[in-house]
Amino acid sequence: NAGVMQNPRHLVRRRGQEARLRCSPMKGHSHVYWYRQLPEEGLKFMVYLQKENIIDESGMPKERFSAEFPKEGPSILRIQQVVRGDSAAYFCASSPGLAGNYEQYFGPGTRLTVT
Amino acid sequence: DQQVKQNSPSLSVQEGRISILNCDYTNSMFDYFLWYKKYPAEGPTFLISISSIKDKNEDGRFTVFLNKSAKHLSLHIVPSQPGDSAVYFCAASATNNNDMRFGAGTRLTVKP
Q1: Mutation choice for B interface testing from A10, A102, A105 by most B CBs within 10 A
Q2: Within 13 Å of residue B80, how many CA atoms lie on the same side as its CB?
């Protein structure tokens, strides 16, 4: 039973390019969460998605960032026109979304470096 | 808006002694609390949780205490081991909301 998969593990982009981060949840999990961890800081919630729906995007920057979780395939976090301040570790987590089950299972993260 | 706070960025204890990590929250709707452990270059892993109907949950060397009136919880590790050295995140969630909010983390170092 594979855990949460994220790829790539490391991503280098020049300023102005686009970054695409992928997350495959655990088998049977229909809820996906994205978090960002800036250097020396904690995990910041970005967005919570269920299949084909964005449930809560209150932590997403208003511009350049978007997320999707299509019916088929992984969840994608997309950052357009990246800037140096976007350099961070981006973690995806998934959960089964069952009532009373709040535990989230995290992937290994994607470390984005903007040069 | 920091709804979950871990005011100690770091903690250092001697092997065999007790480690106490603290966490405060502001949102009274939170009713489920979790602790995650994170090693460098890895994702956080679930450690232990507690529901608001309890004030204590124990799992081996790890015990979480919840004080609802003070909106405070703590994680006790006893005895501490060098392998416990990691960053510990406190997280909170509300029953009708699958979102989770994390604290900034506390870096625990257990010295041999």
Answers
A1: A102
A2: 22
